[in-house]
Write a structure and sequence with these properties.
AAA+_ATPase, ATPase-coupled transmembrane transporter activity, ECF_ABC_transporter_ATP-bd, alpha/beta, transport, ATP-binding, single chain, 7 helices, Rossmann fold, three-stranded antiparallel sheet
């Protein structure tokens, strides 16, 4: 569905990513690695938040950066970086305005997503009054109303307590979209289809969780 061909990212003459060649077709892919390994930069390539210094990122059916962002949604680690408007309903409408949908269709999409995750009671709440878990779910809802084909999550459980982490994990498991999750939470990724291990800006491991995660743990203990 999405491919990386000879991708490298450099900033101010410093290499962040190098020699990334892979194709992702699995529905559940995890990305792990130590801080500074390049995994978050890699995640931001999926929908054009970051662009390659060299190489290509190609998504099936997307010929432009605008189309790429239409097909691939991104959920930030801190939902405060994603939530823009003071009311939940206004924030969920924000992205839909760019699609120029009829008002009835926009409202239907918002109602459907809120009901699906039991968030209807938050529709008219002030976003700054939401709990951390509620903000993360509203950030996810804001991506889902756009109906992307793939969603990338950057450390989605870092700011959550145990209850909200479990709620988010349940939501991730129920998504029909393909998802890519960058996380230090290895338990979250145990049942994924594939895990990519980044080290020093390159892929050091690629395979099923049962194969990649133990080797990552072993290296981290050295």
């Amino acid at each position: 569905m999405i491919s990386f061909s000879g991708v490298a990212v450099e900033k101010n003459g410093v290499g962040i990513l190098r020699d990334i060649d892979l194709r992702i077709t699995e529905r559940r892919v995890g990305v792990i690695g130590r801080n500074g390994s390049g995994k978050s930069t890699f995640a931001r390539l999926f929908n054009g938040i970051e662009t390659p210094s060299r190489g290509k990122v190609e998504f099936e059916g997307a010929g432009t950066l605008k189309e790429l962002r239409r097909h691939v949604g991104f959920v930030f680690q801190n939902p405060d970086n994603q939530i823009v408007y003071p009311l939940v309903s206004e924030d969920l409408e924000f992205g839909l305005k760019n699609l120029k949908l009829p008002k009835d269709e926009a409202r239907r999409r918002i109602d459907e997503v809120l009901e699906r995750f039991g968030l209807t009671h938050l529709r008219d709440r002030l976003t700054h009054q939401l709990s951390g878990g509620e903000k993360q779910m509203i950030a996810l809802a804001g991506v889902l109303v756009m109906q992307p084909r793939m969603i990338v999550f950057d450390e989605p459980t870092t700011l959550l307590d145990l209850w909200n982490k479990r709620m988010l994990m349940k939501a991730l498991n129920e998504l029909e979209q393909s998802i890519v999750v960058v996380s230090h939470d290895l338990d979250l990724l145990q049942h994924f289809d594939r895990v990519l291990h980044f080290e020093n800006g390159a892929i050091a491991g690629d395979g099923p969780p049962a194969q990649v995660i133990p080797l990552y743990i072993e290296k981290s203990q050295c």
